[in-house]
């Protein structure tokens, strides 16, 4: 997690590096020996590696891979899809033209492989014969809804692992001290934030104003949305009851986090102290400085908490609280936020994050209650988002010139607008919202395609030293003063946004219900996370062949099977986020790449949900 600081990592570095890294590496080597998986060792096959999704491709969705080489591949180079069990060729095609991403390296070439037309279910690998050498990708399988069948149960298992339910946590969290006070509150439950951080957050970067991520409340909403959107699939694979139960578990934590005054408590912070009695309810600044500013504004988790509670209230299914109590809490919290949200915000005014989080909250309340008060506020917030569009097509985050970029929630404005449109029927208001969605999607496609980009990695606009720049990764010099990490949550949120929003503004009679270019955009991001990236690493722990090292944490927590790691970043040391980097070891800072963080997994759940619906 983002607040995972070097002073704490120093205490764990021996365990992480000597234990986690070595054991994980040994297990991977042994697995390769046992299954005859390719090592992709350049000393054996030359400077050629086939990068593919190491988990699964949906039968009817786009299917791509990339060949990485130190020289351009010869024209008309052929590849084969071979049965991973018999090595029998079942499909062949031509590798596309070799290209370089100059921002990353001028000594590496990438060549796309498109095998979308191959739709036979089974276990396969991609094979390339060149210079009398045979190079294989890691294995993967193809099947109808293969991603959903594999990933959704894995994610449910991850969040069950991530529950803050050790005896130490449960006992301490029932009597938590409020920072600067002798008052205690019961905030037991919820999910630990990351594989290296057992704290619990609604949003941990509130002081940055424009970078606040949605954490526990977003995860709860994500589970609720998936439970409703792919209900039949969940039933078939036996994941419906476990996922719904996990969503209720999350909603119950939101209920406990709602203060008698009507605001949500923002953070339960561990101080990275092994003593559970050190835990406090706090507001958080840079370098783990804590304050009594623990009241959530809309953008600090409050909006998404209201949304999750309002939506789950419609299930007529009780957790530790009743459906009626969920809805009453959502309405009470909304009324409080309407009065006090800007007071709780660190700069005292709304920005784009408040707009889209409030829009999600009031859309869910409008759907749940049909009250005009929520309809009116939803329309206002949707109009606010439209007004924030720049002439270039990206959103403006503030009241001036800062482009909206976000390391985890970049797709949430579109997702919020799409949810609003599930209820809005007035043609005038629908037209404005649809235009906003279309403009945002068009911008994302344009900025992503304006440079050579063989992986189709989504690029973004940001303000750096007073100038707007476009790049692959977020700037390392930003409002936080120190926080930057891999952006797998951003990829998940954009995948969901492109498909959910795309079905509204670019509908098509295709397997994913959108035009082919949008479908490919989405598949590129999912496959990047699952292994089709320049480092040949599957970021979903325990799946694929090549994973990040295991990370240990307090109270028996740590890396969980099915969880998504931070991922790839711009080059360490470059303030504008240019270049590319991924490190397994970095003197205690390897968390930036390898640590699991619940927004990554929560948003990947939405990406896969969108891939499984039409």
Question: Which SSEs are present, and which pair or pack?
Answer:
Layout: H1 6-35, H2 42-45, E1 48-51, E2 56-58, E3 64-69, E4 78-83, E5 89-94, E6 109-114, E7 122-130, E8 133-136, E9 140-143, H3 146-161, H4 167-173, E10 176-178, E11 184-185, E12 200-201, H5 216-229, H6 231-236, H7 240-256, E13 267-269, E14 280-284, E15 290-291, H8 302-312, H9 323-344, H10 352-369, H11 372-387, H12 412-421, H13 427-449, E16 460-464, E17 467-471, H14 488-505, H15 516-529, H16 591-594, H17 598-611
Parallel strand pairs: 2-9, 10-14
Antiparallel strand pairs: 1-3, 3-6, 4-5, 4-7, 7-8, 7-9, 10-11, 12-13, 13-14, 14-15, 16-17
Helix pairs in contact: 3-17, 5-7, 5-8, 5-17, 7-8, 8-9, 8-10, 9-10, 10-11, 10-12, 11-13, 12-13, 12-14, 13-14, 14-15, 14-17
Task: Summarize, please.
By secondary structure, the chain is of the alpha+beta class.
CATH architecture of the largest domain: Alpha/alpha barrel
Q: Give the C-alpha Rg.
A: 23 Å
Low-confidence segments? 1-46
Helix count, per DSSP?
A: 17
Strand content: 5-15%
Give me the CATH fold name of the largest domain. Glycosyltransferase
Q: How much helix, percentage-wise, in residues?
A: 25-40%
Structural class by SSE content:
alpha+beta
